């Protein structure tokens, strides 16, 4: 038997964090004991968007989709008994990335670690937040400055740290094709590298060190041949850009360094056991090819379309990686696809298409201009609409959803309430109480002076990182740090992409959509109004707007007048808009788990305002019906309906045209109109 020297396995992570710093610390230490080789920290939405847990927009969101980190004390508890000197830590954080890196640095120093030896990654990609994930805070200019300052600081002071992880993962979640995913990510990299180069903070001879610290975080879908070819094309394009545009001659500095989480968009609520084989196929796309193999991999859990995974579910995902790395012979061979004419042809095709799209974006003035114009967002909304239409038409097949739908009873989900983890509703109050105690006990003059100094630096041109590190040491809170920068930089509401999205429904959906259009027109006529009006609202901090955008686009195409104002709205804002726009239905989209808090609040405010659906002569006497969509466990759906919600939609309701038809039925029922015999 030939003796082969095996490659080292990739870093194995699970994306984790919930409830409190203490609870997340316990989870991390358990995962590390099971053989996980790196940490991947999930922060809750208030932390990601720069709010303290006691802010009005944080209500219902604290500790839901990640760990709340409000100040240095939380960061200490998060990494208690975890030696940061030995750890490789990934932090999925963007608008507030500079703040979280400062907290991490200070905790590492307190542990006695050498800061120059710290290894890990801060995501710090604001462009994809504007386009897909929605945790942006500041306008593009100041956001790019924060990114630039952080990169130059890290290269000089934390040289083993990756200060930016350009993240195309969420672009694919928002509907990006492989060409769009690669093109938009590389366009972001070009904008960032240009900004660092032009800032004057890095000497030209050190620019290769900057390029060497740029990493990427990508998505791998179930079409694993295409996804593997995408990564080979991605790697070659990066090599070309860094050599030709920036003159980097050192091949090691030009190396394409990426981590991956495989696709969560394709995980299904129907027959969720099928998600395991989807996850395995997607992992193979980024591990089989040695020449384009991921440096770090984290896998979702089989039940993420149902709710928050339990520790056991995360362990299962970790074991999938470990079996491939340690039981198979994958790591013993050179690239097994080298010389394949099929692979080479597909890679060349992707390279050419991506180069064309990158050139188009550069001609627009670069990626920031393409964000502000709405071009990138409208392209993503359109491609996502096309994908959903293919699924509904049966052109794109999903086992258990639109093909092979019959199934045996699933023992994994026999008890749905036990098949996912839930966050204690009382957790938020405890976190808020602890925050108030922190503020009371800190050195207030030092904290106040640190915030004042931060604002002064923000108003000038100096690097913001040193002032941010002092804020961390002084006990400043996440909301105070971000609030100071909001005062100087302002805030930004990204384009929704809905208005600019073309009609993207495949021809096969024509009869179904025509039937719904007929329902919409007949109902509007019976109510004596020109058009039915639907308000699509996203209360709270959940920025995952893909589903809301698809509902808005399809409702528009079905003849509704749609009011969609984007993400991050308070219940008060939504109710005010419903009254001002005289809507016939309010649709709420929430994927973060805050539906139990925010939906009843919207219902109560609508009732208190006496909100009714309009007729030909003005307000009628029918309360405005409310529908809800999102990742909502069955028990919660029952409770919401009991509270007055007219309908609840979850990922199993994949037919968007059918959903629009059901919304019309809800409006008719609310207004005591007879059901229509028009199929949808």
Going by helix content, strand content and strand pairing, the class is alpha/beta
The main sheet orders its strands as: 1-10-9-8-7
Quote the average pLDDT.
92
The residue ranges in which pLDDT falls below 50 over 5 or more consecutive positions are: none
Q: What does the oligomeric state look like here? A: single chain
- What percentage of amino acids are in beta strands? 5-15%
Envelope shape = globular
Number of helices: 25
Largest sheet: 5 strands, parallel
* Alpha-carbon Rg, integer: 25 Å
The N- and C-terminal alpha carbons lie at a distance of 63 Å
Q: Estimate percent helicity.
A: 40-55%
Secondary structure tally: strands: 17
Write a short abstract of this structure.
48% of the residues lie in helices and 11% in strands.
Topology (elements, then pairings):
Blueprint: E1 11-13, E2 15-16, H1 21-33, E3 39-42, H2 45-49, H3 72-78, E4 88-92, H4 97-110, E5 119-122, H5 126-133, H6 140-157, E6 161-162, E7 164-167, H7 169-173, H8 178-199, H9 207-212, E8 214-220, H10 224-244, E9 258-262, H11 274-285, E10 296-298, H12 311-327, H13 341-363, H14 367-372, H15 375-393, H16 427-441, H17 444-459, H18 465-473, H19 478-489, H20 510-527, E11 533-537, H21 546-557, E12 561-564, H22 571-580, E13 585-590, H23 595-608, E14 612-615, E15 618-623, E16 626-630, H24 634-643, E17 647-649, H25 656-670
Parallel strand pairs: 1-10, 2-3, 3-4, 4-5, 5-6, 7-8, 8-9, 9-10, 11-12, 11-13, 13-16, 16-17
Antiparallel strand pairs: 14-15
